[in-house]
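Q: Can someone sanity-check these two? First one:
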Amino acid sequence: MENQSSLDLKKCFESFNASLSEVEKAYGRIIRQIDAYCRQDTMPVEYLKELAGNLAHEIRNPLAGIAVLTELLAQQGEDDQARSIQGILHGVQRIDTIVESLIAFSQPLVFHTTQCNVGDLLQRAVEAARMQLQGACEDYRFELDLPQETIHREIDPALMLQAVQNVLKNSIEVMPDGGDIRLSLSHDEPKHILVVEIEDEGPGLTSADVDKPFYPFFTTKTYGMGLGLPASRLIVEKHGGGILIQNRPEPETGVRVILTLPMD
């Protein structure tokens, strides 16, 4: 009869093999999207080369750790084996996270639109961000500036909420010690558009990176897949809107992300 360590190891590698299969499928879909970007000439070729290298790096790191720990298993007693198995499970979980991100980004967006109070949606996004911060919430101050009149728009509330939350998550992550995050909603009458602005007090963007935040897999953080802002861009553009990011004017630090949506 197999002992518990053997059963755990067997289960681990079954999950690992399933994850690799999903990586291959998602990678194929991403490559097709990259080909589409190439045909549209919307991304520099140098970035596409960098993208492929980053993706391989994200997957190779946990694979290397799994390989080392598997080799160590053959040389260890039962107590050490249990720790190695936990390390392998952690590596598999990291690959699972990568796979989930790849699948989510590569799947086509399916819209379910309804008339939505945009101010309420922004409030929900802030509340969700506060909940995710948990004990660190007091280090971050959210300011929400809404117009007196209620603004409704035909949107997919779940997807648009995700788009705003992705931007808030990015602002939080670039300010690990806390700071102010300001959101505002306004109606540009001459252009007949809604404008959502989200500002943070992070380090801002270098001149070399200012055009890259909406590219898939670009990130300046030490962790993360760099898919949050590109996903927000896909969602906003699917709604017929636009999104841009710019450094706040000096002497202020941080960035301003501007989402625009047509009123009609």
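And here is the second, same format, sequence then tokens:
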Amino acid sequence: MQRQSHLLTLPQSPYFCMPESIGHYYDHPDHYSYREAGALNNYNIHYVVSGKGHVEIDGIVHTLGPGDAVLYSPLQEQLYYSSKDDPWNIRWFHFYGESLQTYFVQGKLHRSLIWSLRQTELWEQAHEELLREAAEHRMLRPHHLSTLTYALLTLFVQYATPKTSGKAGLSGNRITRLLPLMQQEATRPFELDYWAEQAQVTPHYFCKLFKSAMQMTPMDFITRCRLQTAKQWLLERRTASIGQIAMEAGYPSVSYFNKRFLSHEGMTPTAYRQIYETSERL
């Protein structure tokens, strides 16, 4: 059984956080989801009400049971699926917000992917309220959607404790706990030695761990983060020139910025901005 709602993503949201989609799956033993690294640019939490499921991180399979949850940050590779023998009853939601990177670091949510929740009834009740709001009113009451999303996040911060353990889990965590920080600092010059030091490994091993965990190099990840930031600024800062946005997003050369943008988006930054402006007038 599947209950779910998919909502519009606001390009210039005035809210701290908003849901992109929300759902509740149960009696669904074939539930399986894989997203390659870089495919999804929002946060998402999948929480197990009952039954069992599995999450694969860095080639290691982790089994989740009642009260457990997996938290993904933007651009991360994702692979999770229900147990066939004891299908999970799972509540999930995808969400976004410009200031969430800082919030997650301050709340220490970058420490792990897998968590265990206390006070599960409160979280399940808050999730049901958000799911009902999305199903009944869609985007007609965005302030209410934002408030309910924030309630879910604060309950998670208050009652969730990191669960990933074991040598392999710790190795994967060296990378995943740094992702929000790396995304937050992406527009600054990238220094491999600095990030390797944060992970307490050598630069060579850092690159090896990163590639294993994310299926991309550290610089590829930084490039994706810079382009996501640039895309947001192109729409929000209409009077800023392409050169100004390129420089502030970490590209001192406008021509190189145009080249990377075209390679990833299939169009130039100018064309991207014009398409959005045209759609607004329709």
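A (reply): Looked at the second one. Confidence is low (pLDDT under 50) at residues 165-169. The first strand starts at residue 2 and ends at 6.
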